[in-house]
Specification:
Length: 398
Amino acid sequence: MSVPEHVLVIGAGLAGLRTVQGLRRAGYEGRLSLVGAEEHLPYDRPPLSKQYLAGEWDRSRIELASEDDLEELGVRTHLGRAAVALRPGEVELDDGATLHADAIVLAVGVTSRTLDGQPGSIHVLRSVDESDGLRDALADASSLLVVGAGFVGAEVASTAVDRGLAVTVVETAPVPMERLLGERGGTLVARLMTDAGIDLRTGVSVASLTATGAELSDGSTVSADETVVGIGGRLDLGWLEGSGPDLSGGIPCDERGRVEGLDGVWAVGDAAAWTDPRTGDRARLEHWTSAAEQAAAVAADIAGGDPPPATVPFFWSDQFGLKIQLIGRPGAADEVLTLHGDGLDGGAVKGTVLGYLRGDTLVAVAGFGAARLIARYRRPLSDGVDRAALLKFRDTLS
């Protein structure tokens, strides 16, 4: 593929910005355009449920690039403009403008899922404006209901507890963060929540939601001054319908980020379903590090450079006074064993490290306040060590 004259990036979040920066680092000297549905300059989303929501960081701390930075990159921005149609070599925006390019990168992310009949006064949290609104609301509240105990819900609950609010968390799964950490890992998050004084209700769903609380599927009720719904992201790809690919599981890509069936189109970030070259499976990884790594790979592919080294997925979450870290793909595991600590046996959660095995092969490692140990497991995980080698390595760290 020849180096394109004009690269158009749709989405001005982390993945979109890192793609632009990666292209320039790779020596690309052609035209660059960046389209963002929000009017804001690119900003970092993870702090929106943590330091920024808590008021510990001001707006400047979450900015990823200033106007001067973008000018230095030589990128033309179209902020406050949403893409509404994709055609070969062009994208139509909601103001009627059509942008032409010979390489297009889709970095569109996802939107917040909501409950059926959710009142407009109920908070969701994905944008900086939504974080601003929730922070203002919590300043005058004494109680908070959090629907959903995924990583955003857990982080919001942690932030609210630290602010002195009475917090109730409702989760349909048997434990918090089950989808990411599995049931055994989720039990440790449950302990963090209950030890912090949170009223955690698992295995129940919301039957009805009002501005002042909820009725749950078990017939119980919860009253709260404010409510946040954090039940994950929703694909918002209607504007791509008719472009060719099956979008039901995200934007289908090969291992380089090239979109299936669309020449000259790549995808990165939360909505991109990349192919794992080791297994052939496609998966969407809604994590900060994955977005940045995909952007680097796509930038290299477009610019004709060497691809960056292969990495393993990495996720982290700051909550209840410690950092939860995860490397690998725990969803592929059929067994979880304790490598360090005794959190699963009722001891301290901090310092607990779990190993996730598929058959006899290590596929993921999770740590709770154990950053030093997690860093040591990157190599054995990349090597796909078996159980015996894993336990032997574990014993060298004890």
